[in-house]
TrEMBL record:
PROSITE patterns: NLPC_P60. The keyword Hydrolase applies. SUPFAM superfamilies: Cysteine proteinases. Residues 161-272 form the NlpC/P60 domain. The keyword Metal-binding does not apply. This is NlpC/P60 domain-containing protein. The lineage of its organism: Bacteria, Bacillati, Actinomycetota, Actinomycetes, Mycobacteriales.
Length: 272
């Protein structure tokens, strides 16, 4: 052990300092949701159809915001757990270095062994930091993928429901995983493998290849696309719509599962 080694190892350990308690996000929407549910249930003699529709849309917005809060809290909670784990791992390396304080015999063999242990500790500490940063990037990507959908008070379309919602959440949970041609998950995917795996989590069986999936379900015009729909920018590639004119996809070799913009010249299929 040397003072320089301890300083370097401790600096890495301090990257993970801070509170790691569970995050709690609550938009406080329950009372407003109940009020809007009651307003939407009024009969036509009391509330005009347009008011009923507006109340129902407001209720859906609040429900979507609450779901987004829950999803964000879950991502943040996982990030806190990962940071706590990294703090423990890097701290153990620092303690190991401090315990290796005795100079020992000054023989060439002893000196080589001491240098080997120092190098091993530095490599281990670097690996812990690199792993933590990779996880942090995945969490940041997942947070950026969350949308409240309230900009300009627009309500572009129905949210994902039922099996489509399960498939969308499953696909988004794989953000950052590498593209590997022919891979079908759960940690590596090609484009059709990601879509097939995501829908399998919802109990829906799709074809294995893009050329099979382009015949699954029913065709849908772009103006009616909704989360969970299969999007084909060309015959050899498939994406999954996630709302707000975005898709999740495993794009190509060397890339990873990511979120992209919905294209203009596309074919769309809706699994049944």
């Amino acid at each position: 052990m040397t003072d320089t080694e301890i300083e370097v190892l401790t600096r890495a350990h301090r990257l993970f300092a801070g509170d790691t308690s569970r995050a709690t996000l609550d938009a406080g929407t329950a009372p407003h949701r109940d009020l809007l549910r009651g307003a939407g249930g009024l009969n036509g003699g009391v509330a005009q159809a347009s008011y009923v529709l507006a109340a129902d849309r407001g209720r859906q917005r609040l429900q979507a915001a609450a779901r987004t809060d829950a999803d964000a809290a879950d991502v943040i909670d996982r990030a806190h757990r990962d940071r706590a784990e990294a703090r423990e791992l890097t701290g153990s390396v620092v303690e190991e270095a401090r315990a290796d304080a005795s100079p020992g015999p000054m023989t060439p063999m002893a000196q080589r062994e001491a240098m080997r242990r120092r190098a091993a500790r530095l490599r281990a500490q670097r690996a812990h930091v690199v792993s933590a940063r990779l996880k942090a990037r995945r969490h940041a990507t997942a947070l950026r993928a969350l949308r409240y959908g309230l900009a300009h008070h627009r309500f572009p379309g129905p949210p994902a429901t039922g099996r489509a919602a399960v498939a969308v959440r499953a696909a988004l949970s794989r953000l950052g995983r590498p593209y590997v041609w022919g891979a079908t998950g759960p940690d590596r995917f090609d484009c059709s493998g990601l879509v097939q795996w995501a829908y399998a989590q919802a109990g829906v069986q799709l074809g294995r290849t893009t050329y099979q999936q382009i015949n699954d379900g029913i065709p849908v015009p772009r103006s009616l696309v909704r989360p969970g729909d299969l999007v084909f920018p060309h015959a050899g590639h498939v994406q999954m719509a996630i709302g707000n004119n975005l898709v999740v996809e495993a794009p190509y070799s060397g890339a990873s599962v990511r979120i992209s913009r919905l294209g203009s010249n596309i074919a769309i299929r809706r699994p049944l």
